Amino acid sequence: MRKPRNIDAELRALADKAKGLKARKITQLGELVVATGADNLDADTLAGALLSALEEHDADAKEAWRRKGAAFFQHARRSGAPRNRTPEHAPRAS
Question: What is the pTM of this model?
């Protein structure tokens, strides 16, 4: 006879994996904000821009944003560096 599965252990393992994936998603979103230079915006402005994007119903505008985002990632992949990180956007030495 085969040993019964430990369902509780499997559920705990899945919950741990889900937590790890959620943490990775949050980290990657933060990296995206930094890579685009949006970290120079204050939190209220960034939140407002994101909320406006969610509320946008114009498919053409969303498609234009999608193309611009895809171009950003293509450029970043080719150059290996964030696109909007110019000297005025670079972190200042303290």
Answer: 0.67
